[in-house]
């Protein structure tokens, strides 16, 4: 019923030339793939070239952040309108690195979710607990708060166009992955929260797993009932490894 969405998150990696080289290779590797949405999140500088590089293919481009105003005196920031105008389709929001290093709060992330929707793009809202939360038995509570606050005042109709990425913070960039069973348990808890907010629309909403998803573990994670794709860090930097994850999602 739900289509798997496999999205790369390049983070602060790749010059424009490197971005175009990777995307050109990726397009060829995944050209016959149907039934999976394929997305690459690129840094601002590479977005325009990235969009052109994937034109006419089944790969789409995401930004990794945005400022929630359409224009104005916000030195150094980039608006949803600007991203939309160059052909960006998705925006990754609330990644744990932004929450941690740039002090992003749930309320600020909620503003961004609304601004991205208003511009006609799809937000990918990242949520996830830290190791100390999991060890203290607060996993469900932390994720529920991030989902409820991040999606505050969102309607069920709008929720149809929102992707959640569950990324346990202790599994990001550490090589550690949640076991498929642990991930499924948390995805189900998140879907229960979405159901209490949006009713039946929750069954249509994509919940990706993120946090060291790689070719070796993708198939068993993606086989879980409530895991509908992945947000992939390190393994998205190389076309060959990312394509293997895409193929595992078919
Ligand atoms: C990771 O896999 O490291 C990520 O942070 C994906 O967003």
From TrEMBL:
Residue numbers binding substrate: 9-11, 173, 212, 233-234
Pfam families, A to Z: TIM
Localization, UniProt: Cytoplasm
Gene3D superfamilies: Aldolase class I (3.20.20.70)
Keywords: Cytoplasm, Gluconeogenesis, Glycolysis, Isomerase
Active-site residues (renumbered): 95 (electrophile), 167 (proton acceptor)
Involved pathway(s): Carbohydrate degradation; glycolysis; D-glyceraldehyde 3-phosphate from glycerone phosphate: step 1/1; Carbohydrate biosynthesis; gluconeogenesis
Enzyme Commission number(s) from the entry: 5.3.1.1
Chemical reaction(s) catalysed: D-glyceraldehyde 3-phosphate = dihydroxyacetone phosphate
EC top class named in words: isomerase
Subcellular location, principal: cytoplasm
Keyword flag Cytoplasm: yes
Gene Ontology terms, MF aspect: triose-phosphate isomerase activity
Subunit field text: Homodimer.
Family recorded in the similarity comment: Belongs to the triosephosphate isomerase family.
Function: Involved in the gluconeogenesis. Catalyzes stereospecifically the conversion of dihydroxyacetone phosphate (DHAP) to D-glyceraldehyde-3-phosphate (G3P).
Protein name (Swiss-Prot/TrEMBL): Triosephosphate isomerase
Native source species: Fusobacterium mortiferum
Gene (name only): tpiA
């Amino acid at each position: 019923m739900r289509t798997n969405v496999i999205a790369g998150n390049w983070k602060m990696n790749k010059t424009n030339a490197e971005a175009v080289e990777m995307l050109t290779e990726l397009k060829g590797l995944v050209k016959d793939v149907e039934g999976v949405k394929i997305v690459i999140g690129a840094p601002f500088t590479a977005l325009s070239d990235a969009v052109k590089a994937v034109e006419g293919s089944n790969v789409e481009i995401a930004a990794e952040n945005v400022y929630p105003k359409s224009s104005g005196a916000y030195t150094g920031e980039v608006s949803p309108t600007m991203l939309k105008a160059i052909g960006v389709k998705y925006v990754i929001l609330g990644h744990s690195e932004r929450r941690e290093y740039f002090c992003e709060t749930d309320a600020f992330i909620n503003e961004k979710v609304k601004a991205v929707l208003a511009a006609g793009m799809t937000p990918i809202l990242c949520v996830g607990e830290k190791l100390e939360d999991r060890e203290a038995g607060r996993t469900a509570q932390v994720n529920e708060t991030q989902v409820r606050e991040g999606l505050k005042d969102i309607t069920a109709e709008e929720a149809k166009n929102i992707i959640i990425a569950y990324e346990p913070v202790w599994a990001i960039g550490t090589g550690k992955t949640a076991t498929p069973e642990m991930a499924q348990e948390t995805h189900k808890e998140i879907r229960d929260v979405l159901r209490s907010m949006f009713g039946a629309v929750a069954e249509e909403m994509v919940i990706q797993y993120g946090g060291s998803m790689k070719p070796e573990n993708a198939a068993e994670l993606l086989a879980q009932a409530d895991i509908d794709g992945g947000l992939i860090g390190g393994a998205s930097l190389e076309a060959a490894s990312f394509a293997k994850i895409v193929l595992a999602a078919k």
